[in-house]
């Protein structure tokens, strides 16, 4: 089936047999490794049609979260995201050459969230998160970058960006509404922008650009960092001055969704002064492919997550100069793989890699080896997904985690093991699917990189304890939760709403979809013209099932008055205690009733389980 389809599309098929079929002498291990990479391990559908270039063009990444070696699993649609940062670097180099041949401008932009996501960023031993992996990001010729909320949860991470990463960007790492508090040379505390608040620069073709770098109204940032609301930012004197002069285009970047968030606040502030100046916006944070046009002379895109998507925007600025006409924009969401890259750069697989690209790939492999990321815990018998299978079900990662892995891991060396319990976690603590095949240290950190602990409240009557989970998931509690941690929940909600929407499209034949997984991938319906035609490679949408926000282990089979332990993740105590006090009046619970249940960290659970059950 797959073979037939691939042949129809004119793909050259190549298995292990042609892995060595290339022109390079294998005189060092970089080439040895690259010899394997030249061919995707499975045939991939190529892009649908060439990119449309304008006179100003942008390549966009966002929310890469450490996925610099790309997606390495063979379950669909993972191979469509199998490029790595070295491949991307080669792509950018070729695209820059093509831009010069076409005599047009090409910029490279990133919208933040470099931290938290894979072993490359989170597998460090006693260092700072993403310090090493960011060195590779720094080797790409980014014209503009900005800060994400994942750069702001741990002070050491923000400080590392401030001292080690940002200085290499030459004033083009923009943080218009984010400050860091540091000690000045006299030892006094001082709040300063983490990067630059804005940048004005001239492109190769002489276009004058003004840029800002804005984060959404984020409130979960660590002490000694400051996030100003977008609304307050646009009223600052520096902002008014920065946008006063009219450039040829505003290129606004930000860790902020292009839909349902504060971009209109920034857009309107600029428009009020410059009614016709082109405005190009590059957002992020909700991990989706999305597009908005705020008027006929502006466009904003958001380019997904986890190195799955490379965003593209082009604009014909010269044709609209001095006129009131709408500007012609295009946008495209590219699948991040070598077939995509070679297609758009007209290169063969043997001529594609640049020296810098190869060296980045090799360096990332070395880092993975240094962090021992291929350490094998066991072999997963099947895929366990966050949203491609219903919860509860045996294909649900949430079911695997809460019904099997957590109870197993928490019972190890635990004196309370004999006391019945109910374990409660938030489902968005799990960050990525777990795929069939080897389950390594890298996979463990990718699925759950956070190092949280489990706490408990003892002696709660089983009949009361079993009502906590339904209460957490009921709408008023959700409303409160949403206000507190708008960030992660908004990601989950909007991601979900969007995936649900594409899944409900008429005309998707479920049976065909499940029998031909080779076609699985993103099917995007955004709000810009030609919605439904912005995905670069045509796919069938992956199945989507929504999951509850909170999940719990199966209640023990005991009478309602039997005392049980209520076990939960360390940050859920403040939500569970008020609920417990509402459900019963015999005792007024406080945080003093909460103790450590086990010293085990959430990031260790799946490794322990895999070691015991998947060998
Ligand atoms: C950060 O804040 C704490 C108190 O909140 C203070 O003691 C510390 O000196 C601050 N650090 C810096 C770098 O300003
Ligand atoms: C950010 O730093 C600048 C420069 O020190 C300061 O003037 C400004 O008040 C700070 N902004 C915030 C929101 O703390
Ligand atoms: C951001 O904060 C401002 C000021 O508090 C508020 O008016 C605005 O609605 C907020 N934006 C969003 C998207 O929550
Ligand atoms: C220009 O763009 C606006 C906003 O996208 C749209 O409403 C309008 O119809 C367009 N005008 C023309 C002449 O295409
Ligand atoms: C999971 O459920 C499916 C469908 O009910 C079944 O075919 C499969 O064998 C089950 N897998 C396991 C590991 O139990
Ligand atoms: C459990 O205790 C044993 C014996 O003290 C120890 O070797 C083992 O590492 C412990 N396991 C875990 C997961 O802590
Ligand atoms: C629960 O326990 C009772 C009494 O021991 C037993 O009869 C019943 O079958 C158990 N139910 C389940 C679902 O295990
Ligand atoms: Zn993100
Ligand atoms: Zn984010």
UniProtKB/TrEMBL annotation:
Gene3D superfamilies: 3.60.21.10, 5'-Nucleotidase, C-terminal domain (3.90.780.10)
Any single Pfam family the record assigns to this protein: NadN_nucleosid_C
Domain Putative 5'-nucleotidase C-terminal: start-end pairs: 383-576
Domain of life: Eukaryota
Keywords attached to this entry: Signal
InterPro entries: 5'-Nucleotdase_C_sf, 5'-Nucleotdase_CS, 5_nucleotidase/apyrase, Calcineurin-like_PHP, Metallo-depent_PP-like, Nucleosidase_C, Pesterase_C1039, YHR202W_N
Record PANTHER family: 5'-NUCLEOTIDASE-RELATED, ADL392WP
Protein's name in the database: Metallo-dependent phosphatase-like protein
């Amino acid at each position: 089936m797959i073979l037939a389809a691939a042949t129809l599309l004119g793909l050259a098929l190549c298995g292990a047999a042609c892995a060595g079929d290339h022109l390079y002498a294998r005189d060092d291990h970089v080439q040895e490794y690259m010899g394997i990479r030249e061919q995707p391990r499975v045939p991939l559908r190529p892009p649908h049609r060439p990119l449309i270039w304008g006179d100003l063009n942008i390549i966009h990444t966002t929310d890469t979260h450490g996925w610099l070696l790309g997606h390495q699993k063979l379950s669909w649609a993972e191979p469509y995201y199998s490029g790595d940062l070295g491949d991307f670097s080669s792509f950018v180099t070729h695209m820059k050459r093509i831009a010069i041949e076409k005599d047009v401008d090409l910029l490279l932009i990133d919208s933040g969230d470099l931290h938290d996501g894979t072993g490359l960023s989170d597998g460090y031993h006693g260092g700072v998160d993403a310090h090493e992996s960011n060195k590779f990001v720094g080797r790409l010729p980014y014209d503009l970058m900005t800060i994400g909320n994942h750069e702001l949860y741990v002070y050491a991470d923000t400080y590392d960006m401030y001292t080690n990463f940002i200085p290499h960007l030459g004033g083009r790492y923009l943080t218009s509404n984010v400050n860091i508090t540091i000690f000045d040379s006299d030892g006094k505390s001082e709040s300063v922008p983490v990067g630059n608040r804005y940048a004005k620069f001239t492109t190769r073709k002489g276009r004058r650009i003004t840029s800002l770098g804005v984060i959404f109204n984020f409130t979960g940032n660590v002490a000694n960092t400051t996030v100003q609301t977008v609304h307050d930012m646009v009223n600052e004197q520096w902002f008014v001055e920065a946008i006063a002069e009219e450039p040829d285009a505003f290129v606004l970047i930000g860790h902020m969704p292009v839909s349902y968030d504060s971009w209109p606040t920034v857009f309107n502030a600029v428009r009020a002064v410059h009614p016709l100046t082109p405005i190009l916006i590059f957002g992020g944070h909700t991990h989706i492919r999305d597009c908005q046009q705020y008027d006929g002379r502006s466009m904003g895109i958001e380019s997904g997550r986890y190195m799955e998507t490379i965003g593209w925007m082009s604009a014909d600025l010269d044709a609209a100069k001095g006129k009131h006409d709408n500007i012609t924009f295009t946008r495209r969401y590219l699948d991040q793989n070598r077939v995509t890259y070679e297609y758009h750069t007209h290169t063969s697989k043997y001529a594609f890699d640049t020296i810098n690209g190869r060296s980045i790939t090799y360096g990332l492999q070395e880092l993975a080896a240094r962090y021992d990321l291929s350490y094998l815990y066991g072999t997963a018998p099947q895929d366990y997904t966050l949203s491609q299978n219903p919860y509860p079900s045996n294909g649900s990662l949430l079911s695997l985690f809460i019904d099997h892995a957590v109870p197993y891991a928490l019972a190890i060396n635990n004196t309370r093991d004999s006391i019945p319990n109910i374990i409660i976690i938030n489902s968005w603590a799990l960050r990525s699917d777990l795929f069939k095949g080897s389950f390594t240290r890298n996979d463990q950190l990718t699925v759950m990189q956070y190092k949280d602990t489990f706490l408990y409240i003892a002696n709660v009557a089983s009949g009361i304890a079993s009502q906590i989970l339904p209460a957490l998931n009921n709408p008023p509690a959700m409303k409160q939760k949403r206000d507190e941690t708008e960030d992660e929940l908004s990601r989950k909600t909007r991601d979900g709403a969007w995936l649900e929407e594409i899944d409900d499209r008429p005309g998707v034949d479920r049976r065909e979809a499940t029998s031909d997984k080779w076609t699985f991938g993103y099917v995007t319906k955004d709000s810009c013209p030609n919605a439904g035609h912005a995905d670069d490679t045509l796919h069938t949408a992956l199945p989507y099932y929504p999951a509850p926000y909170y999940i719990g282990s199966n209640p023990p089979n005991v009478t309602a008055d039997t005392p049980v332990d209520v076990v939960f993740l360390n940050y859920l105590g403040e939500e569970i205690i008020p609920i417990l006090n509402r459900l019963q009046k015999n005792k007024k619970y406080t945080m003093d009733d909460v103790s450590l249940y086990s010293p085990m960290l959430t990031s260790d659970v799946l490794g322990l389980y895999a070691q015991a059950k998947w060998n």
